Amino acid sequence: MTAADRAGNTGTTTFAVTSREMDIRPNSAPPRRIVRFSVRGMTPGHTLFAHYVLRGRERARVRLGVAGGPCGTLVTRARFFPQRSVPTGNWTIQVDHRRRWSRGAKPKTRFPVRVFRVSG
User: Fold this and answer.
1) Which residues contact 5 (CB under 8 A, 6 or more apart)?
2) 88 near 34, Cβ under 8 Å?
3) β-bridge mates for residue 111, sequence order
4) Which of 33, 56, 100, 105 is deepest in the core (most CB within 10 A)?
5) pLDDT tens digit string along 75-100?
6) Do residues 52 and 61 make contact, with C-beta atoms less than 8 angstroms apart?
7) What value does the CA radius of gyration of the chain take, rounded to a whole number of Å?
8) C-alpha–C-alpha distance, residues 70 and 15, integer Å
């Protein structure tokens, strides 16, 4: 980025920019299956927590690890859902730096998950 004023003074700087997002692969799996969590755009050097929220209440929490690199990235493997019993419904997995869940946490990223029963 370069900035200039009317007197002809200029200044230049460079910086990295990345979007904040989370990806879970595979994104359709049984709740106890090990999946890959990929998060980027968080604050480097800070611990990331995954908060499992159903109907506005945190039902579980997992420490994912520490965001690294200049873009605040983390790739780790963990169970899709940490708890043994997972009620059906529309869940939100929110990743942020807070140990306790807060709807207003910043920075954060969210991943919606629909849990349903399969007969078979």
Assistant:
1) none
2) no
3) 93
4) 105
5) 999 999 999 999 999 999 999 999 99
6) yes
7) 18
8) 10
